[in-house]
Amino acid sequence: MKILKIDQLLEYTKDRFARFKDNRGKNKQYGIGDSLQSGLAIFSLKDSSLLEFNKRLTKRKDNLKRVFKIDRVPPDETMREIIDEINPLQIEKVKKGVLQQVKEQGLFKEFEYFGEHKLLLIDGVHHHN
Fold first, then answer.
1. Spatial separation of the C-alpha atoms in residues 99 and 84, rounded to whole Å
2. Nearest 5°: phi and psi at 118?
3. Tens digit of pLDDT for each residue in 16-60?
4. What is the pLDDT of residue 126?
């Protein structure tokens, strides 16, 4: 059995995000994959805001490239414009793909509670899901 690593999951998200339809014109300085992956990085790094993320950007640039596979982090206004145009259902499909990979590796087994139910804390946004 192959061991699942966070690097593989982040490569998966970046690849899937880069496949999203991009309705912007041809003159694009920042890719849609980098923009969405930057949004994921904000939540993963627990920054309180996009402004806070951007303040720390200079110190984190190498890590964002190495860990999150982000080539170019867009400025906050550009990131907002790009992300605002994305249908949340597309992001939900990427999330389900990540969870499917985790499930296939049997990593949910230790969280089983009352049969088929799982007890997980994923991001703290939902009280119950």
1. 24
2. -115, 140
3. 999 999 888 777 899 999 999 999 999 889 888 888 998 999 999
4. 47
| 44 φψ region: left (φ > 0), alpha (ψ -120 to 50), beta (else) | alpha
Q: Output the pLDDT for position 30.
A: 92
Q: Confirm if 17 and 69 have CB atoms less than 8 A apart.
A: no
DSSP state of 4: P
Gap between the Cα atoms of 35 and 41, Å rounded: 10
- Separation CA 106–CA 122 (nearest Å): 17
Q: Identify the pLDDT of residue 10.
A: 94
Q: CA-to-CA distance for 63 and 18, rounded, in angstroms?
A: 20
Tell me 86's DSSP state.
Answer: S
C-alpha triplet 10, 68, 22: angle, nearest 5°: 80
Task: Collapse the DSSP code of 112 into the 3-class scheme (helix H, G, I; strand E, B; otherwise coil) and give the result.
Answer: strand
pTM, two decimals, is 0.82
Q: Dig out the tokens for 47 from the structure.
A: 């920054």
